[in-house]
Amino acid sequence: MNDGRDLLTTAQAAARLGVKPETVYAYVSRGMLTSTRLPGVRGSMFDVDEVESLAGRDTARRTDIGAVERIRTRTTLLDHDTLYYRGRDAVELSSRTFESIAQFIWTGDLDDDVQFTADPVVVQRCQGAIALMAPDCRSIDRIRIAVDIAATYRPMRFDIGAKSVIVEAGHLLATIGASLGASSTEQSVAKLIWDGLQSETSDSRGLVILQAGLNLMADHGLAASTLAVRVAASTRAHLYSVLSAGLGCIDGPLHGSAAEPAYRFLMAAREDPIAALAQQLRSGTRVPGFGHVIYTDRDPRAEELLRLLRDPALGADPAVIAASDVVIEEMSDRFDTFPNSDFALATFTCAYGLRPDAPEAIFAIARIVGWTAHALEEYDEEPLRFRVPGIYTGIRPVS
Predict the structure, then answer these.
(1) Cα–Cα dist 373/359, whole Å
(2) Residues 86, 75 contacting (CB under 8 angstroms)
(3) Vertex 175 angle, CA 306 and 77, to 5°
(4) What percent of the chain stands above pLDDT 90?
(5) How far is the C-alpha of 165 from the C-alpha of 146, rounded, in Å?
(6) Measured between alpha carbons, how far is residue 387 from residues 22, 64, 68, 281 in Å?
(7) Which of 163, 218, 327, 384 could form a disulfide with 369 if both were Cys (CB 3.0 to 4.6 A apart)?
(8) What confidence score (pLDDT) does residue 2 get?
(9) CB under 8 Å to 185, separation ≥6 — which residues?
């Protein structure tokens, strides 16, 4: 708010207090909390400090030894199946350049003239190291190598002040993009990434959708990788090490690699989507790329990417889009579910003949933006604040 207060929705206040929303309103009636109404916002809002004060009455012992449940962020809000960056609808922002969205998420300033540059020498060193890797290594492996090598060429990386961190993050995004195989560093980050992921037959009009995908994947609240980033930042590790913590987390099949099964399924479904769907159901395994643990009725990121993919002017393979739509319709009718961002990125990859691991690479590079924003926030918190008590279950020592 303009008066400087941070506010929580009723659902957020209830989650923080560990009670039902009805109990929150009971606290209001008893004078224990103050509700606030904002024009154009549905429901009551509650002051963060007031909620924290009330929570502290029952959780004082816990908060002395662990603060995991008290992570505050101004970066991303997930509310009513809508994704917001700093209070702005992410879908409405997604047509802007990746650089401008990164700068907005980091600073709150929306500027379309932002550019990130890479040092050609560093890019050459990264590409040289990548050339020594296994020919069939994944893009995520190449990205990790690029991060580690780039760090060694940045002697001021240990400056974790906001201005320095933002500069480093911009340089790194351009360096990673160019390291994936671009012949020139004088391009936008999205174009650098496109050059590294496309095949000889890819329609360059897909760059529009790639840019939207990068923007929509930039942050998504406190996912596992983002929590790892916050923990690393709390130790005052420099940005490159902090980002490495996030990259380690998304390498798992349940996070950054979740789109791979959806890609394999769609490749099989291109010719006969009904047969592929029937085979998937017959095998007893779920159809990948549908439903979400946070969204209830739709994933706004997938909705926007699929809308762009259906635009004939952008050159996506119509056979892939047709198969994708059949699968979506069948899954909606039969199971009342919806496609998520993994399905949308997999469809994008199939429709433009990109590298099979393109969804994972897009997710990783995009999420560097959000991780940087969370690192900036964590650097302003008390250091080493994440000390979660463990419960020993091993053999007790003999007295």
Answers:
(1) 22
(2) yes
(3) 45
(4) 70
(5) 17
(6) 32, 9, 8, 44
(7) 218
(8) 53
(9) 117, 118, 120, 123, 174, 178, 192
User: Which alpha helices (H) appear in the chain, and where do they start and end?
Assistant: 10-17, 21-29, 48-65, 90-93, 98-107, 120-131, 139-152, 162-179, 189-197, 207-216, 224-234, 239-250, 259-269, 273-282, 300-309, 318-335, 341-352, 358-379
CATH topology of domain 7-70: Multidrug-efflux Transporter Regulator; Chain: A; Domain 2 (1.10.1660)
* Catalytic choice (292, 299, 317, 374): 292
Cα 345 from Cα 361, distance rounded (Å): 11
pLDDT tens string 11-47: 888 888 888 888 888 888 878 899 888 887 888 899 9
pTM over 0.90: no
Residue 255 is a catalytic residue: yes
Catalytic residue among 119, 148, 255, 325: 255
Token output for 7: 């506010």
pLDDT digits (tens, 9 = 90+) for 102-155: 999 999 999 999 999 999 999 999 999 999 999 989 999 999 999 999 999 999
Tell me if residue 342 is catalytic.
yes
**Backbone φ and ψ of 398, nearest 5°:** -80, 130
Catalytic residue among 219, 299, 342, 357: 342
